[in-house]
Amino acid sequence: MPQLSTPPQLELWLLRHGMTEWALDGRHTGRTDLPLLPEGEAQARALAPGLASQRFAAVLVSPLQRARRTAELAGLGEGAQICPDLQEWDYGRYEGISTAEIRAQVPDWTVWSHGCPDGESCPQVEARCQRVIALAESLVSPQAPAIALVAHGHILRSLAGSWLGLGAAGGALFNLNTATLSVLGHERERRTVVRWNAQITTPP
Question: 11, 17, 28, 154: which is the annotated catalytic residue?
Fold first, then answer.
């Protein structure tokens, strides 16, 4: 009897972009298209050695320049595909201001619990995350089961929550620094976190 083929088990390699001025200041940076700081460009270059030996079926990148530049400097720019669903949360009226400033008006506010007026809510972001996961699943092959996603802090945290069945709000459980690598994968049939919030300068 012919053997049944086993679908490849997807790995999502999540890369948060390097430092920007607003990230340094703790200001919410959603759709504002800021460039990387020189420090952020150095951070992105430092990712390249640890990624050089990894084969990706596809590289999906947020359309915003801080993510695209990070992918380029990390050695992932060639063949990268723009993925609009990887844009950062739309913070609406909270764009460009800090959590402390928001909480002066809305005590105990978090993006996970309250969402953003004139911006996005967790269910809306969850829908985007599920589309990204479905797209990634359609791109893998047995020879290359890994997909690189280069994007932003809150959307990648939301993606982790969505991957684990916690919804986008599950991203509240995951810290994520600039210019870090995280890997979502499987243990047998169960979706897991393989690696999280790691600085890499050598192959993982």
Answer: 17
Whether residue 202 is contained in a domain is answered as no
Q: Is residue 193 part of a domain?
A: no
pLDDT of residue 7: 54
Q: Mark whether 88 is an active-site residue.
A: yes
CATH code (residue 95): 3.40.50.1240
Task: Please say whether the beta carbons of 128 and 1 come within 8 A.
Answer: no
State the pTM of this model.
0.93
Helix (H, G, I), strand (E, B), or coil: what is residue 198?
strand
Q: Residue 194 to residues 17, 167, 182: CA-CA distances in angstroms?
A: 20, 18, 8
Q: Is 98 exposed, middle or buried (0-12, 13-18, 19+ CB in 10 A)?
A: middle
Assigned token pair, 114: 């309250």
Out of 88, 95, 120, 126, the active site residue is 88
The answer to whether residue 75 sits within a structural domain is yes
Domain total of the chain: 1
Q: Is 17 a catalytic residue?
A: yes
pLDDT < 70: residue spans in the chain: 1-7, 201-204
